[in-house]
Structures are given as structure tokens and as C-alpha cells.
Structures
1.
Amino acid sequence: MTAVLITGGRIIDPANTIDKVGDLFIKDNRIISLFERPNDFTAVHTIDAKDHIVCPGLIDLSAHLREPGQTQKATILSETTAALKSGITTLCCPPDTHPINDTPAVTEFILDKVEHANAATVLPIGALTQGLEGTKLSAMAALHKAGCIGFSNAHTPIKNTLVLRRTLEYAASHNLCVIIRPEDPWLQNQGCVHEGIPASRFGLPGIPHVSEIIAIQQSLALCELTGCRIHFSQLSCSESVNLLKAAKHKQLPVSADVAIHQLFFTENELNTFDSALHVTPPFRTETDKQALIDGLKTGVIDAICSAHQPHDADAKLGAFPSTEPGISALETLLPLVLKLTETEAVSLSQGISWVTQNPASILALKQGTLTKGSAADICIFNPELTWTVNENNWLSQGRNTPFWGQTLKGKAAQIIKSGQIFSS
Amino acid sequence: MTTTDSLQFNSDHQLQHLLSIEGLDQRLLTEIMDNAESFASLANQPVKKYPILRGKTVVNLFFENSTRTRTTFELAAKRLSADVINMNIATSATSKGESLLDTIRNLEAMHVDMFVIRHALSGAAHFIAQHVAPGISVINAGDGNHAHPTQALLDMFTIRRHKNDFSSLRIAIIGDILHSRVARSQIQALSILGAKEIRVIAPKTLLPIEVNALGVSVSHTLEEGLQDIDVVIMLRLQKERMSGALLPSESEYFNCFGLTQEKLAIAKPDAIVMHPGPINRGVEISSEVADGPQSVILQQVSYGIAIRMAIMSLILQPPGRHHT
């Protein structure tokens, strides 16, 4: 029967087009009122949110937790805690754990650990094919029942197009969403950077634009054939945005997200072989970067994800091509979204929608809004607070961020998840 | 974040590591070649040693096989009176940086002064330079497809000995540009030295994407590409690339891109022919040309010692810092 009052904050709820200073009332872990004090409401906890923004807890469509199997990189406890304290109350974890999340037992193992961690909510993504091998369908219905929110083959594209077609047909039969990280298995060709001028200069194997473009075209054709709901994860090319735009125009059931760091880096930053910038898909051109930002602004790209990939130090120590791709990105998601709204002159409300309302609607989640009656998943943050990324405040077990040592603006202060209050 | 420049030069603008030709200027390249000139004349003396690096220890750390480069580095260091250790570390391309760093740490503990490194992955020399203890220098003896600066410098030295002025020269680089660290470093060095034209000649499967951006013109045939050329540089084509998705066959490659006396006649009559070695006779170059009067291939090898002496002495005993 906990009653919480959040007072004096700027309440932003994009789903209900609210952006106004006022109070928010929580009772029994639910939002019971905005701006107007309900009769007989007596606050047990009062949070002063003056000069703070009060918005729905962030939803991250892709965050690797590394557990089970790679706890030297991260654990469910370490990463869900880092997520929650950074304002992310819900996250989806890809199936490429060890063992792979292709059986309900693995899903249940993950959810059991999540429950004990008592931090961010985790919605596991199940494997689309058994062992991610791209040959046999996974038991999607059973996995869904165990708690998987969608299905994906993670970073292992399905080579056999007949199998891909069957997975989409089967998922569509159960009304399940398939998440595709579009990459052509052949054109990847062990590339580690964008196939462009820097790759040519530095003699690094490149991944061409067409690797992503061909994969999207193939998926879109199969989407039309099967009617399966497809979400494209972590777009990186300008032409991908055009393809998505045309597909949405045709009213195909598609959506897309972009990894936050794709909006801040290009291939031109690679000149030092800095393994912190080794990511898949790779950082591409300035034109691509701008097209991705425009895609977000025009709604062609629906959401921003962290694409969080925590690593142990050794994974990033070596000659660039031998290092593992990925950025530890949970804790920089909110400040970078805020920075983007500043540099691109879009409203805070629109920026917040990319990490709340929009990802929620992609997966048909109830979260991502402050609508009266919804569960109280709330992020209260100070948009002006500057902080330096260092070992004193970093929570993820993976320290592989290109922002290490840099000063960022905006930090979650208090987070409410299902009515429970957490301080960052 | 460190840039290549801030890695290669110390705070006094002295060269402390040689990782890439990128970031060096014409003055420095000329200085290295001038110094190499005096070391080259030493080769004809009865006693071929200078005491410049006496007491210094140089480790040749080769993660990839090499005969010529390692031997010339070894001879160069020995002629400068340094102590030399050769380490050939067989390793797979996927080996972890962890072991790479461990290897370096172990050798550092033995108080060495310089690492000469060859590695199969681009960026390996940068990585090691970023992690060695202060005061230890790194020379890149070839990293992946990225750079081979000492080879490029000895090639420039060879060209200068035969042709003098770079600004009037048209140079053709022929073959597997895509996988060639030598070509990348040569292109950078020739650009810095102001060559009139750098032309690459290869099928598209052996060219990096947007290769023009590196400052070269492109041709896909020897017939067109060799016109007006003063210097012909052939590249080695590795056996595993001769048949498959890059090239149909050895013989088709030789027919299209192999340098024969007949094809060489298209270039200027006084054109010189170079090759970084080892040569695949009958694949990229005919024996007739390789052993012919226009070939300077063996000179390149002997100049390799002089250039490496010049670079090692510049880095380990920079001007103005000589011990008395």
C-alpha cells in the first residue's frame, strides 16, 4: 500500500503528449493520477523532482547480459543494476548466450536470475532457430510461454532462405515478432570496419553497405510473402532508411531501431585502431549517420537501443581485427539521447519517445508510458547534471566504452520500478 | 585518444616509433634516405660495423614468417653493433591480444630497447606501441594489410638512386593492391615525395574500395597502364589467392597482369623494375624481366640493410643526443 508522491518535476509522457510541470501520484505500484491529487491520498514517500524530468522508465530493445555463459564479461545482476540506475527499467536480451536461449529452461534460468537481481525488468529474446544454427526452427510457442518477447538469430544471419521463410511463417502463425539484425552472411567476409576509404587506407577488412541492404531487401520480400511482423535491429546505412520508408509506405508490418552510438561516430574516427570503436554493424559514413538521424526524426526508424555489449578487458586488448566488437552502452544511453535532442533541435518529448513509447509499441508492451493505471516504471533525471565516465560511477562490468573519461550531461537521479524506489 | 602522429613522435618531435609512413613529412623521409646513403657506402668497406648502437638490444619479433625482412633487420642492427634476438612466434590470425601483450611484457622485463614487429593483423604494431613501456621503440616490419614502412623507404631509396627527382616520375604499382601493406606504404611515401603520378594496375577484385581516394589513378590493363611509366613496381601474389573468387587461375593472371619483356616495352625505355620479393616467377613476373637489365630487385635487398640502419639509428640515437 505504498503511496509515493513525485512533486514539482517536469512530467514528459510522449504517449499521452504530456510535457508539463506538476505532481505524479503512485499507489499500490501503479500511477493513479497526474497533476491532480486524488482524494484521500497520503504520501508515504515524497520525491522532490524540482528541476528534474519525470518520464517513463527507458526501454532498451537490445542489451547483452552475457549470462549464462560469459560471466567474465558481465552478469545479469551487474547489468540489470547498471541499466536500472541509468533509467532503463525494461530491457530485451538477445539469445546468443552460452547455452543459447533456445529452450524454455534457459529462458527460465535467465528470468530466475533477473528476479533475484531485483533491478531492471528483462524480456528475453528467444533464438529463432535451434542453436542459432539456421537449420531447424526453435520451439517458439514454448519459448514465448516461458517469457520470450520476440525471436531473433542475433548476429548469426540465417544463410538458407527457405529456413528463413519457414521461421517467419511459423512466427506469424503464433503472432510473434521476429527481430532481424540485417547482414548478409557472405558479404560480411570477416570484416571489422565499414568498407570505405579508411578501411582501404588502413588495410582493414571491410563490411560493405550492400551486406545490410541485401539482407533487408531479402527480409522485406519474405515479410510481404509471409505477413510476419519484422523488427530490424541496429540499422547502419542510409539506404536501409529508404528501404524501410518504402516498406512502411506499403504498410508492411515492419519497424526498426538504431544503436545510439551509430548516431555519434563514423568510420573517420577509426584512424588509431582504437578497439573501443570496434562495433558490428560498423560505423559508416557521415551521410549514413545523418540519414539515420533523419530517419528517427521522420519516424522511419522507430527507436534507439543501447546495443549494450559488455566485455572483459582482454576482449579489447589486441590488434583491431582480433578484438571483439561492441560497446558497454547502458549508462550512456540517456545522456546521449539528451545530447542528440540538443544537437538536432528536437523536443525532449520526441527524444524520450525513441526510448520509451516507441520501443514499447514495437513489442506491444504495456510499459513506456505514464498513463493512469499503468505500472509505475519511472525515470527521474536531472538533464543538466554533468558527470565524468570513470571507475567511481561506472556500474556495468564491461568498461568498454569510447566515452571513458569524457564528461556527459544528464543522469538518472531516482528510478521507480513497479512502485519500488531506487537511487542512482 | 592517441593519434598515429602522437604515437610515432615524442614530445620533442623525435621519431620514437615507426609504425606507418602516414604522418611523416618530406624532410624526414629525405633525412632517412640521406643517412642510408652513407650507410650504403659502408657496405663496400672491409669492416662493416659502426658502434652507434653498442649496448642496445633489438628484438625481432616475428609473428609471421619472413626471411628477407628479418635478415636485413638483423644485419642492420648487427652492423650498428646492437645485440639482436630473433623470435619467431608461430601464431594463428585469431590469437588473442592477451598473449600478444604477455609476450611483450616478458621481453620488456629483459630490458630491450627496440621491438621490430611483424604480425598478420593490421594495427598490431600500433597496439604494441600503445602498450610498451616508455623508452622502448617499435618498428613496424609489416602488419596485416596495413603498412610496411621500412620496405617503402628502401623502395624510395632505390628509386632515388636511379631516378633522382620524384616530381617528374610516373610510377605503376601492379598486382594485389588489396592485400598489400607494401603498396599502401609506397603510395603514401610517393605522395609525400611529390611523385607526378601513382598508378595502380589490377583487376577490381584486387583493388581496395575507392582506391582513388588514396591518391592514385587506376588502370585495369598493363597495355594502358604501363604507358609513359618510369618505375614499375610488381607485387607478390600469394598462392592462396591465385584461384578462387578473386582470380580464376595462375595462368590467366599471368596472361593479363604478368610482366613480360613485351609488356615492359610499353613503359619508358629507361623504366626500372622493382619487386619487394619473394618473387613468383612466371606468375607476376617472367624470369627474363626479373633477371633482366631493367630489374633493380636485388639492389632493393641490399639497400634494405642501409635503410634499416638509418631508421634504427635515427630512433635509438637521435641527432643531438649522441653520447660522447
2.
Amino acid sequence: MEEFIRKSMEQRVVITGMGIYSCLGTSLDEVKDSLQQGKSGIIFDNERKLFGFRSALTGAVPHPNLKNELNRRQRMSIGEETEYAYLATMEALKNAAIDDTYLDTHEIGILYGNDSVSKAIIDAVDIVREKKDTSLIGSGAIFKSMNSTVTMNLSTIFRLKGINMTISAACASGSHSLGLGFNLIKSGMQDMIICGGAQEINKYAMASFDGLGVFGNDALPATEVSRPFDKDRSGLVPSGGAATLIIESYESALRRGAPILAEILGYGFSSNGGHISTPNVEGPALAMERAIKQAGIKPSDIAYINAHATSTPVGDANEAQAILQVFGETQPFVSSTKSMTGHECWMAGASEIIYSNLMMLHGFIAPNINFENPDEHSAKLNIVKQTVFKEFDLYLSNSFGFGGTNSALVIKKIND
Amino acid sequence: MISEKINEILVDEFEVDVDLIQPNLNLKDTLNLDSLDYVDLVVIIESNFGVKLVEADFTNIQTFQDFYDLIKRKTSEN
């Protein structure tokens, strides 16, 4: 009885707005076209080579000019990742039909994934090294130099009054932001939360990652290096931008007549409790199983998996084994959109929900480009090589990060 | 003229109309300065004039003229 009462009080959680600023495009329409065409956003950045990178490949986005959109104080306090997040959030709010009046009269929260502010810190410290005086750093630096820079700035700019914090969980940050937001709304603690993920794209942010030797071979054509699940993959390609999703209770969406794009059915998390950078099979499998269980569905109901697969030898092989373990004989379509975007790191778990929603809303499954020859494990998956035009209404998205943090989300098309 | 140079950098930094700046007007109110803005004022004066302002320098600054006089004095001391 108690369980029944608790369940009956739980809110359904829906996605009512999306906004994207990525190397596949800076609007939902552009990104949808890129996904459908299997277009890569990866370039060779000679500045990285000169700086000392082993691999100079990266995703690239245009540098925003926000002079006419934000005032001086707002602009001074935001770094690159927050500029991207601001633009993605503006698009998402518009997409969700939320205007200034709504922002001012309702309690809206923000949970956003971000896990670095490298450039802002280096720029500030460089001034002190040169001037030997911290008073010459300027007032904006501190607000750009904290991991919570995205949420502290966006909550100020959009006058938010609900939950307000950054989720730092390596490359699963964006996905966990949605999962945690889902639980807050499901339990009735918040009606609406701005979720997402942001990722700075600059040489400082990725230098130490490149130092591990896990980035792809930049002697090959830039758009062909990110090749998740392919047996000749040589490593990942870093990327970035920002992705924002407006999530809210089904009741709230109905009340305000909002466009409902999809419903979040399940969030599964786990921690590997093992190596700091090498993933395993059990942790990701457990996250997927939990998401599926919470969604109240069977693995065979899932039509598509947006894989975490980053194009690293061990990571992709272990995820393939985890998918095989969970889905068994009925393998859904699988693709890693990182084949086109590169690894959007802190942003990836949120952007990949947007990519997958765009596919679900427009009736196609984007390809895992550059997948030519499988390895032992990926040969058993149903990997999409060319765009598949197909209506589907249920998918799962994986995100895993350093430290063994895992997140899986199950999302459904709204048909009612 | 040092006052013209100061006006120029204040307009650039605080994004105000140059016509708003008059020697006898109040610096803080005209530029709508808050505590964070004073941090930036120190930075732009140092980068343009090579002199370092400290909190105590602002104690008696009311008008733009007071501020011009302060910078003149500081630069001549330098």
C-alpha cells in the first residue's frame, strides 16, 4: 500500500526544450541535418601541434559574440564553456516556449554538467606570474575559474530560484545532470530544471588528456579518425560546446501547454570501483540494467542505443561486451555519434540525448561513421553504418567517465 | 590631456556614453560602479598608466576631477 501511495505521487518527467551549440551545428535544425547526413565536425588544429600536442585533432565551434546579448558584468564573468551554455540555453528556453515572465514567476532549477575551467585559471595565474600582484587579475576571473561557473552564471542571467549546482562527473557529467534532475522532478521537489552539459574547447583544457596518448592518430584525414567500434580505431578526438535540455513534470508541461518532446523513463548509475581510467564491463552493464528496470521495460523494447564509445580500443570493446551482456540475442541498433562529434566530454551525456531525440522525432538513426571493419566484440552488435530511416519510440543512452562513473538513461517518445 | 585619456578608457571599460562624463559629476554614480568594478578600475589604470591604485586612494574621490587629479599625482610620483 505504501509503495502504491509513493508511486502514485511520483511525477512523470518530460523533456520540453532543447538547445545545442556543437561542432555539428549551432541550432537544432543544423545539427539534425548533420546527423542525418553523417557529417563530421572534426578539424586539424595546427595551433595544438605547435603547442606540443601529440594529436592536433579537435571538434570546432564558432566563437560567440555576446556583446549585444549580455551586459558587461555578465560577459566578464563567463568563460568559453558558459558562452556556449548560454546560447544553448537560450535556444532551449525558446524551444520550450518559456519567456522572461515565466522565468520571473516560477521556481526553476539548474543542474548542469561541467568538469573543467582550464583556460580561465591559466589566464588568471599568468597575470599574477607577470605582475606579481593578484589585485591586477580583474574581477571576472574568479567567476570563470570555478567548476560551477556555468550554473553560477546562468542562474544569475536567467534569474533562477530553484536547485542550483554543477554536476562534475567527468565524461558522464551531462548524463548525470539529467538523471539527478529527473529524480528531483519525479519526487515532486522541483517542477522544472534546466539540465545539460558544457565543454570548453581550447588547447589548455585537453593538453594533459592528450599527454596520456589516448587521442587518435592525426596523420590520418581528420574526419576519419573518430571511428568507434571499428577495429582500426586509434583513439578519441576531443570536442566540445554545450547542450541544454529543459525537463519538467508532465503536469507542468500540460498546464502550460508546452511542446512535449520526450519522456525520461529511467536513470541507472553505477561506479566501477576499479581503475581510474580503464573502464570495465560490469559497471556499465549495471547502469544499463538499472535504467531499463526503472523504465519498467524489457531490453528487447529498446530500438536504439546511443553508445558512449569514444573510439578508444579498450573502452569501446568493454562497452560492446556490456551491451551484449544486457541485450543478448535481441540487439537493438547501435551507433556512437562521437564518430561525428568527437568526444564532447562533460557535455556528451546531454548532447547525445539531444542527438537521439532529434533522431526519434524525425524518424532516423544516425550512422556510426567510419565503422568499416568490426573487431571481435563489435561484430556481434547491430551497428548502424549508414543512416537508417525508421520511426522508433524508445532508446537508451550511455555515458561513462574517469573514476568509473557510469550513467544510462532510457528515453521514450511521447505518444499520448 | 590625461583627463581625455582617462575618459577614453572609462568609456571603453564601463561601456558608457562619453557625454555622460563631466569633471564635476560623481564618478561612482555616473559609471554605476559596484565593488567589483573598482577591482577593474585598478586593472585598467595600471595597464594604461603603469600606476597601482589601492583602496585608500579612493577614499576622497567624489568627482571625475578628483579622479583625474589622483592619476596625475600618482603618475608624477612614479
3.
Amino acid sequence: MTRKTDTQITWKTFSEGLWANNPVFVMLLGMCPTLAVTNSAINALAMGLATTFVLLASGLLVSLLARYIPKQVRIATYIVIIATFVTMIDYIIQAISLDLYNALGAFIQLIVVNCIILGRAEAYASKHRPAKAVLNALGMGAGFTLALLCLGLVREILGSGSVFGVDLFGPAFQPWVIMTLPPGGFLVLGAWLLLFDWFRLRRQQKETVTGGQSDVA
Amino acid sequence: MNEAQQAMQPPRASSTLMMIVLNGIAMLAGFLVVMTSQLTAPRIAENQRIAIEQAVSKVIPGATRHREFHLGKDGLRSEPGADTTTIYAGYDDQDHLLGVAARAAAQGYADMIYLLYGYDPTCQCIRGIKVLKFAETPGLGDKITHDAAFQSNFDALDARLAPDGQGLAHAIAKVKHGTKQHDWEIDAISGATISSTAVGKALNQSAQALLPQLLPHLQELRATEKRP
């Protein structure tokens, strides 16, 4: 695809990351923060938003500079750009709330090596115009945040009996502690993947039965 | 790779161009990072000050303001040195010294447990603790931060000095859940024994080392009461 013919912006540019190519539920990328920091809804939301910021900013800069970057040093350049924005969001989160910063721990710095971001920079931002790259990054970020929230909400409700720190069931509730521990991350992720695949297969089946054209390759 | 794709490939770039691009990106990155660091520094310092203020007012009940000192072998200093311990003296509205807070740390179950504790010179006891940083198991070890029965250990935990002034009269230690008999014992949380032990160990180590050094200088902390 050449950059000149690439001006058409459709709903799909944005929704690709949200649904059809959801980074977590479909592409299974970025599993490290997905499993590690989704033990509460607020951690999941903060991690999702931080990643979205880095996706957005690095996507824009990569898209703007792509034509000037020699092919041989592009990965090094993308990593420096991504690391810059990660350091910025690291400072910004410290300025917003130290508690949140402590809860997210090392995983903010580890956004640098999140494969979603480098993947988007290499596969999309460097080949598309800034407006399109930004919109696509926004969709991917929203999809990632949505997926983390799906995990975080379930794990917090089952593991601590609360939502965003608000107690749901009162003191009599016996929390299912394993849900906030690492195994809970795997269990909940597995359950969501099962659900997503079941939906996908059902839609596929329906389309075959009604004779409609399947949009799933 | 077809011909069209091959035609799209940029010609092999010269080393000079690569260096220019990498240098340019690195400079831009440096500028952005320093700018963010400068812009957020006051807010981060303020957040840290608020966090310490809240912790100090929790471990020294009634304290409305605090001052930071650095305790070394040669006494109290206002600037930190290589061998100094940071302490926070807590005062009430009338500038009366209510207590002194200090940090303590010990290895817990998952990682180091860092806490702040408040020493009250009037009752010669520890009046409260606040866990600053920990990574204990949620639902078990993390009870040290909020379990009401465990926290009540520190309503007045005996920390009297031995007559020779070289250490505590009774070492602070945790005992098995439900067997606390003396004021210097910490009743462990059932199911969080290692975390409870760590809290006791941290307090004992810190108090044994700090209090003999601190007590000769209590008068100086009181003397600063009238200063602004």
C-alpha cells in the first residue's frame, strides 16, 4: 500500500483494534501487563490508558518521521520514540497519584517492550498517514483498555468483592483470593477467550446457514 | 517480494544519514523527557510530602505538623549525611512534641516490607505503624495493613530502654496468635505469620538501634518547638 492512495479513513480504521483485531482477545499480544496488573479495575484502567497514550503518541511521531528514517535503523528509532513516551507517562502517573504508581510498579516502564506498540509502529504507523495512524492507534488502545477492564472487573469482583474500590457485598463476603493472584489472571483470561471464540464461531455458523458471505477468513 | 515492492524499498542509506537520524531522534527524546520531568517535578514532590504527612499523622496520633531531622552519631542535623537516619518529629497545634516517627524494614514473605512507626517519648512506647511499601499475598499477608486486631498491637507497644541505655529493656517480638501476655509482644495474625514476624523484626531492629541514639537528643527536638 503506498502512502498516496491511502487517504480513505473508514470506521474500520478505528474499530479494527476494538473488535476484529482486538490486541488481547484476538491477537493475544501484550500478555505480560494483561495478566500482571489486572488484579483490580482501577489498575487495569490506568494501564490501558497509559498504553493508549504511548500507542497514540508513538504512532503519530513514527508516521510523521517514517519517510526520513533509513530502513536499517528503523527498529532502534521506534524503540527510542516509544521509550521516550513511556518515560513521560511514568512521570505523569507519579504526578497524578503515588498510590497508583506504586500499584502499577514496574509494569509502566515495561510498556516499552509491549509488542502491541512496536507492532503497530512497524506494521501500521510507518506505512500510513498521521491521521489514519492516530485513529488506528486510538482503536487499538481502546481495545486494549477494554480487554484489561474486562479482566480487571471480573478479578476484582470475585477476588475482593468490590468494583473500583467500592465494596459490593459487605463484610460477610468471603473473597475468592486466587482471583487477585497470578493464577486468577490465567483463569479469567481463559474464560474470556472461550467466550469470544464461542461468539465468533456462532456468528460464522449463522452466516453459513443463512447462505450469507462469511467475513471471517 | 514482487517488483512493485522492490521498487518501494528505499535505496541503501549512508552511514551519515543513519547517524543524523539517530542523533536527531535521541535529541528530541531527551528534550521531551527533560521537559516532562521539569514540569511534573513540583507535583511529584508535593505528592511525596503529602504521603509522608499522612503517614506521620497516622503513626503519631494528634500530630498536625512534622519536621524532618537526620540523626547521626554526632547528633541531630538538618541535612542528610552518609550515616544518618531520617526521623520525623510530630508536633500538635501548640508546638508540643508528641512523638518521633522513623522508618523500619524487614524481609517479608514476598519482598521487603517498609513501614513507618511512631515512638511516643511520654509513654516510651510505639503508638502506631503504617506500612509504606509491601508485596505480601493479597488476602493473607496484606492483613498487616488493615487488620484491626493486629493494628491494636501498636496502640501502646512497650519500647522502654534498658537501664544501661544501650538497647530495649524487652526485645519487641511477635508471638503466636492469641498468646500475647506482655506489652512488648505482637500478637501475630493467624495465616500471616511470616508477615507478622517481619513487622516485629523490623520494629525491633530499628528501635534497638535508633532509640538509644535518639533519646539523648529529645530535648533538642523539644527546643525547636518554638521555632517557626
